[in-house]
Each structure stands twice: as C-alpha cells, then as structure tokens.
Amino acid sequence: MLYELDNNHSGFLRVAHKPVLINEVLNLFSAKPNQRFLDCTFGGGGHSRGILESNENIQLTSLDCDKDRLTQANTLSKLYPNNFKFHNINFSKLDTVTDTDFDGILFDLGVSSFQLDDPDRGFSFKFNSDIDMRLDQSLTVSASDFLENASEQELVEAIRNYGQETRWKHVVRALMASRGQNLLSNTESVAEIISTAVKGKSIRRAKRHPATLSFQGIRIAINKELSVIEEALPKAFEKLASGGKLIVISFHSLEDRMIKRFFRKMAGRPESSKDSRPQDQRVIQAKLSFSKPISASEEELTGNPRSRSARLRMLQKL
C-alpha cells in the first residue's frame, strides 16, 4: 500500500490517495536491483516512496525547491537511510547533483496537494489568505508583488498565454485598475476582481470558478514554470544512462507541447508541423515509447479527480 507522509506528525504516515499515475510510472520504470532513479519533483513524497518500495536494492535521489518538503524528506530518509537522498533545489539545477547515469528520471509537474491546500501558501481562492503562490519561498516576487508591479504586457502574458483565459483583456484591465488600493494582496479579493471581469456565468453555476485560469496563469508566470522545464529537460536527458527512461507527467497544454517537442527532437522526428528539415539533418538519440500520452484511468479519476488533466510521456535514451 502506498502512503503520503504526514506533515503534521513527523515520523508517522497516513493513508492517502495514490500519487498521479503511480502504477503506470512503476510499471514503466520496472525497477531492478542496483538501478538508480531521480525524482525531480518530490512534492508529497508519494512517487518517491512508490519507487523505493518497488525494489529494496535501488538508489533514489529526489529534488524539491520547497523548504516545506524537508520534513517529509527527512522522514523518508529515516525509513530508507541507505537508499534515499534529498536535495532542496529547483529541478532546473539538477545538473549540480553529482550522481549521474540514472536508469529512470521522473518529473511530476503538478502543484502538490500540500501546497494547494495550505492557506498560508496563497495558491487557492478556496481560502482567504495573502496571495503568494511561490513554489520556492526564496523567490523575491510573490503573486501580490507581481499583480501590483508587473507591466501590462507581463499581465497579458500571464492571463492570456499561460492561463489561456479567453476574456483576458477584461481581466488585465480590471487588475490594472485595482492597483494601489490594497485589493491585490489576498486571494479572495483578487478572485472577486477576476470573476467580475470574466462575468458570463455565475460562480455557483459555472463548472469551474471564473478565476481558475487566471490564477493558474499568475502562478506559472511568477514561478517561471515553463522556462525552468525548458532548462531542465536537456539536463535530465544528459543525466540518463544508456537505455534510461525519462518520464514526464504534465497538467497543462503548454507544458505538454514543450515536452512533446523535446521528446520528438531527441528521437529525430519533426518537432512540429513547421519542422520540414530532411532526416539527414536530425540526430536520433532516443526512442519514443509511445506516440500518444497516457492519461489516468477511470478508476483513478474516481479516487483522485485532480488527475483528470494528467498526461504522461516517456522517452528512452539509446
């Protein structure tokens, strides 16, 4: 049985939902004795624990930039003192990890439940708190700082490009008009400003809250989530052993598109419909394990609705 480490009771474990696509990850990795694995997004520790449980004679290194994950990582270190190492760094800096030749590397790009459900982290409009949204608390710009000081073009990029909000002009205009009035400092106020700008559907009757897409875009912008993924993927591929597997689980179409293009590039295939280079100009360094991403099963969706947008892709180094 898989568990999630309890942040409130160090040393104790509580039963929790399985991490997203955990069975698929473990089946694809198919861990064998003496193999080495890297979990670039430790989060709640669920994938890391699952990998460690899959074979008692493997080595796992995990990364996470969130200092709040140290308690869970320390607990896992006590349970697996000879098999587990943790580095409190952003995965864009994975090249600083001395270990290499990993047989499997995993990215789970979703924001962890611990972060979403912690009012003090200011990710969700479900709780009225300071709007922060920093995955790494050492970053100097919070969501509130960004909303007050970003240029209009930066707001457009966050709301239109990253959030993919169709009524982005209304949202950007409303946010700009709310500056300097202490209205952009907490989640409830910002959600109300965005909801009023989006209009169309009432909050109660809409399938999703009107501020959902904009909150997502703001989070992506302040954490530079797309640029760190772009930086990390080549570094991860370099860290793979021959025959090693790179698995990436994404939750956003922009992330998935970036991953798909990188994987196709490594496999010597056209990166997009605009890539018309002849085959002799391509370098084949890996093979695609499957052309279409793996999604969560109906059984998993029933137990964990947050997995509904998860997409898993895998690349194997030649």
Descriptive terms for the model:
318 residues, seven-stranded mixed β-sheet, 12 helices, 9 strands, 15% strand
What does the model show?
The protein is α/β, with parallel strands linked by helices and 318 residues long. 37% of the residues lie in helices and 15% in strands. The strands form two sheets. A seven-stranded mixed sheet has the order 5-4-3-6-7-9-8, with helices on both faces. A two-stranded antiparallel sheet has the order 1-2. α3 (70-79) links the parallel β4 (59-63) and β5 (84-87). α6 (152-162) runs antiparallel to α7, α7 packs across α8 and α10 (225-239) packs parallel to α11. The longest helix is centred in the C-terminal third of the chain and has 15 residues, at 225-239. It starts with a strand and ends with a strand.
